[in-house]
Design a protein that fits this description.
114 residues, mainly alpha, elongated
């Protein structure tokens, strides 16, 4: 009986979340859990780099020492202008940092992620 209620609650939350994503492009669960910052940054990067942005994706271990980890990958082709890519990424990060609600988010950039 209790498992049925838990399943019903999870189903309702999922339906409401997907409805808000479909109608308003707003991920309610990510907002509640604090993941909205990663979505905002990925969207800002997509505006500059298009389909070369993958994510955000949570790794298998997504929380270490009380901090959540989310990965966003940017693919830069061989021969592309790295200085231009750095400039576009810098602009996306500036756009992200101007949002007051994201000031507490730490960003680490790995230039050769595995």
């Amino acid at each position: 009986m209790i498992m049925d209620r838990i399943a019903l609650i999870i189903t309702i939350i999922g339906a409401l979340n997907w409805g808000s994503i479909g109608l308003f492009q707003f991920d309610l669960v990510a907002w509640i859990c604090g993941g909205q910052g990663a979505l905002f940054l990925a969207d800002a990067m997509r505006a500059k780099f298009g389909r070369r942005v993958a994510g955000p994706v949570a790794p298998p271990i997504d929380k270490i020492r009380g901090q959540y980890i989310v990965r966003i990958m940017l693919k830069i082709e061989n021969g592309a202008s790295l200085s231009r890519a750095r400039e576009l990424l810098r602009k996306a990060l500036e756009q992200f940092r101007t949002k007051g609600e994201y000031k507490s988010i730490n960003i680490a950039i790995d230039v050769d992620a595995q």
